[in-house]
Here is the input.
Amino acid sequence: MRILLIEDHRRLADAIVAGLAKEGFGLDAFGTAEEGEAAARTAAYDAIILDLGLPDRDGIGWLKALRVAGNPTPVLILTARDAVEARVCGLDAGADDYLLKPFAMKELAARLRALLRRPEGVLGAVLKVGNVELDSNSRTVSVNGHPKPIPRRELDVLELLMRRAGQVVSRAVLEDKVYGLSDTVLPNALEAAVSRLRKRLPHAESGMSIHAMRGVGYLLTE
Here is the structure.
């Protein structure tokens, strides 16, 4: 899943990016409210981690503007402000969760997974289409109950398609979710990942097929 991190403390931001990568999340990290706002307009994120003490603008004001603009992306506030009033203010401004610094990386990952399981998301933590089951928490895939190793990029594509099984997922959406803004992406990177996944599924005896909809995107069916 693709997460937007807005945190001006560089060492902490680097630690969060590295720590959450081990939990299966991909992050785009920015150090100012302005950069975060531009990223939120450019790409579709599954969740946002927001620091309140940003150098160019207070995080609460940034969050209010995000909600006024109609952006429903779940937001987890990450801050050292431990007063009850600060937490209430953040939640009233539109935050979905609040985590105080210092924190354990495992808890941050767990809170993100909890946000992504809420009803406004599509399906839940464990996805099942036909005889294929994907656990988005453990990042594992099984076919008829048997584990099947799938590389990260292909697994990201598979998760997005399973979350929208029976619907066409546009190429733009897949690229936004699978590749970060800082990733170096070759023009045919997505097509190559989908091609490898399409070959892998029949070999694993899955009952799913991925159909390329020319000029539009991809469709996963049983």
About this structure: The chain has a mean pLDDT of 85. Residues 126-221 form a domain with the Arc Repressor Mutant, subunit A fold (CATH 1.10.10.10).
